[in-house]
């Protein structure tokens, strides 16, 4: 049985569209847990009651303070009672029959973790074109996730794996990267597919590079801040990970620093040298410049900081 966890904040009727796309009448769908992060939308109280009245499998956790999607995703997952947990954003669309497909593939491969593609579209009819995908599996999930840069919110895992991994890093506001790393660290076998499964429906003015005002992905400073500290915390928590995985992690953190600072007035030529050095010896570069990078991200303005690092 599958529990779906949706973290929600001011998504309006897009949440209803997401719930409909889950095919809530499906027999393998046990429950849909909506964790509201203290929405300020005055219509939310009306819509939340509508959802409870019209969708028997919907359960709503209403919070009275705003703590961000990482905390709320963990809260929903710890409430879930299904054997499998599926996570997606509350304004996206799931293609038909994907939950059953993920469940079948996980059971066939005896996998505890599953990812599929999340893509951006402008036309809902595009969803019907995607029915066939290639599945891969790996018994080194952390390395697989790092090499393939997996962090999208189209993930199913066993409830047992989530509890073992403890889910998202709650010192981080945005959850995507920390969830992927935590699950992969404890997973025994991951399966992944190039099949387009979760769809982000863009409006007429949105593109892959121009994001809507109400999307967390628009706030690149927040993304860079959270990605850096997700990796920093992970390396600190697991100092004995193998060298290949540590190289991939440190290289990604150093690249994130360059992406963040390259358009800022305080950028120096030495920052470019750090970026270039990361391609040659990322671990040594990380060790040498770690304090500088930590200080930089701690001092970023206009980002939600759950916990300031030393």
Write the layout of secondary structure elements.
Layout lengths: L1 E7 L5 H8 L7 E8 L7 H11 L3 E5 L6 H11 L4 E5 L4 E2 L3 H12 L3 E9 L13 E4 L2 H7 L6 E5 H7 L10 H11 L3 E12 L18 H18 L5 H19 L7 H12 L1 H17 L12
Parallel strand pairs: 1-2, 1-4, 2-3, 6-9
Antiparallel strand pairs: 4-8, 5-9, 6-8, 7-9
Helix pairs in contact: 5-7, 5-9, 6-7, 7-8, 8-9, 9-10, 9-11, 10-11
Could you please describe the fold and organization of this structure?
- The protein is of the alpha/beta class.
- It has two domains: 2-201, Alpha-Beta Complex (Spore Coat Polysaccharide Biosynthesis Protein SpsA, Chain A); 219-298, no CATH class.
- Helices cover 43% and strands 18% of the residues.
- It is built from eleven helices and nine strands.
- The protein has helices at 14-21, 44-54, 69-79, 98-109, 141-147, 159-165, 176-186, 220-237, 243-261, 269-280, 282-298, and strands spanning 2-8, 29-36, 58-62, 84-88, 93-94, 113-121, 135-138, 154-158, 190-201.
- Strands 1, 2, 3, 4, 5, 6, 7, 8 and 9 form a nine-stranded mixed β-sheet that branches.
- Strand 1, helix 1 and strand 2 form a beta-alpha-beta unit.
- The longest helix has 19 residues, at 243-261.
- The radius of gyration is 20 Å and the shape is globular.
Q: Characteristics of this structure?
A:
alpha/beta; 11 helices; single chain; nine-stranded mixed beta sheet; Spore Coat Polysaccharide Biosynthesis Protein SpsA, Chain A; 2 domains; 310 residues
**Main β-sheet: number of strands, strand sense, barrel status?**
9 strands, mixed
- Share of helical residues: 40-55%
Give the count of structural domains. Answer: 2
Q: Any idea what the shape is? A: globular
Q: What is the CATH superfamily of the largest domain?
A: Spore Coat Polysaccharide Biosynthesis Protein SpsA, Chain A
Strand content: 15-25%
CATH domain topology of the largest domain: Spore Coat Polysaccharide Biosynthesis Protein SpsA, Chain A
What would CATH call the class of the largest domain?
Answer: Alpha Beta
The structural class is alpha/beta
Poorly predicted ranges: 210-217
Second rung of CATH, namely the architecture of the largest domain: Alpha-Beta Complex
Number of helices: 11
For the record, give the distance between the C-alpha atoms at the N and C termini, rounded to a whole number.
43 Å
Mean pLDDT: 91
